[in-house]
Design goal:
The N terminus is likely disordered. The protein starts with a helix and ends with a helix. It is globular, with a radius of gyration of 17 Å. The chain has ten helices and eight strands. It has an eight-stranded mixed β-sheet with strand order 1-2-4-3-5-6-7-8, with helices on both faces. The chain is an alpha/beta fold. The longest helix has 19 residues. β1 and β2 form a beta hairpin.
């Protein structure tokens, strides 16, 4: 379901938008790596950050890698955070605990801790704490979407630090993340392999955890504005997962957009990758940047 996230990351790197920017724009970006943001179970979770020079405050974007909840690396988004920083965002790509050692909801606890960390360190890194967005692909898209619909659910906060801060995000860009795990089996080439590791059993053994872990069932009118980008030929996360999430958010009165990429699979390349990133930038500019 999620293994081809590397394809998306490689495609976005190939776009090399940052390299096409004027030298002056590149020089205006500050990069800091290996920043520890939380330490659950002595795991010393870290993030890499790119930000514009200047006092800001700037809107922030948290980037969450994919990899089937059991693999992947925050470094896959190093290129994207630099491009976002060049466009006026404080952007961070984060590591989180992986299955099967750390099943659901550990990853949720970690990315929520990352949002709280951004707010707690807003002054240091020139972040506007009321303008924080999140994006990710595949498993990362799921985690981004979950952040967008569970801001006020205390059971998912975890103990990752800065409990005085909110984990609410103001915008979500979800690249082909699943919305309903109960409908994944039989429509994904690797759901039967991946999901039991993340959810502690298959659908028959752990149905309730499949429901609780599905963003679709947490939608309320208070969910964050969302852009969903999905290809119609995705064999890992079926395109219908995007339509269900779009329709549920729309029915709740949440501002939501669905960009359908005809013929695209799980992980974009070429023109599809360029369209996806252009849509991401346009959406975040519209939602997070002040007029």
């Amino acid at each position: 379901m999620f293994r081809k996230i590397a394809t998306l990351l490689a495609a976005w790197t190939a776009v090399t938008l940052l390299a096409s920017l004027p030298v002056r724009a590149q020089d205006a970006v500050v990069v800091e790596n290996e920043i520890e943001y939380t330490n659950p179970d002595n795991q010393h979770l870290k993030l890499n950050m790119a930000r514009p020079k200047g006092d800001g405050p700037f809107p922030a974007i948290l980037c969450i890698h994919g990899g089937g909840f059991r693999a992947g690396s925050r470094q896959g988004y190093d290129g994207l955070i630099k491009r976002l920083a060049a466009q006026g965002y404080v952007a961070a790509t984060v590591s989180y605990r992986l299955a099967p050692k750390y099943p659901f909801p550990a990853a949720i606890h970690d990315v929520k801790a990352a949002v709280r960390w951004l707010r707690a360190n807003a002054a240091k890194y020139h972040v506007d704490p009321v303008r924080i967005g999140v994006t990710g692909g595949s498993a990362g898209g799921h985690l981004a979407q979950f952040l967008g619909v569970t801001a006020d659910v205390k059971a998912f906060e975890g103990e990752g630090g800065h409990p005085e801060q909110s984990s609410r995000v103001q915008a979500v860009v979800n690249f082909y993340g699943p919305s309903d795990f109960t409908q994944s089996y039989g429509k994904s080439v690797d759901a039967a392999e991946v999901l039991p590791l993340f959810l502690g059993g298959n659908l028959e053994q752990a149905r309730q955890r499949h429901v609780v872990a599905s963003p679709l069932y947490w939608v309320t009118p208070h969910a964050a504005p969302t852009l969903i980008v999905h290809g119609t030929k995705d064999n890992y996360v079926a395109y219908e997962q995007a339509t269900w999430m779009h329709d549920r958010l729309k029915a709740a009165g949440v501002a939501v957009e669905l960009l359908t990429l005809e013929g695209a699979g799980h992980g974009f390349s070429g023109e599809a990758a360029q369209k996806a990133e252009a849509a991401l930038l346009a959406f975040f500019d519209r939602v997070l940047k002040r007029k």
